[in-house]
Amino acid sequence: MKELHNGDVKPVSIAELLRLDDMLTRAGIPHETGKDVDMGGANIKVPDWKTWRADKRPCASVIQNPFSYGGEEGRLEAWVRGPGKGRELPVGWLTAERAFEMIARAMGYEEVTE
Prior knowledge:
Blueprint: H1 15-27, E1 32-36, E2 41-47, H2 52-55, E3 58-64, E4 76-80, E5 91-94, H3 96-106
Helix pairs in contact: 1-3
């Protein structure tokens, strides 16, 4: 995930997002990472096991860029859909650990261990 910006936006460090990527990988939680060239950051999307084929909406979307809640302070912003819930509001200023916990719970893990 190098060259994260188009020159118009000052990029932020995505270290916390990379930590979350590593945590999800080690836990075996499928996810996609991508860079956000226009916003100077990056994102992670986690598919929803039960509805992925039906509506293609992610269970979680996590971003880190200069405009995200907490992005300039090295924190993450997440939208997470829990079981039986509709659209969720964004939660910002998250650590990788807190975002991981929210994603694991939304996917129905009984115990969250890292």
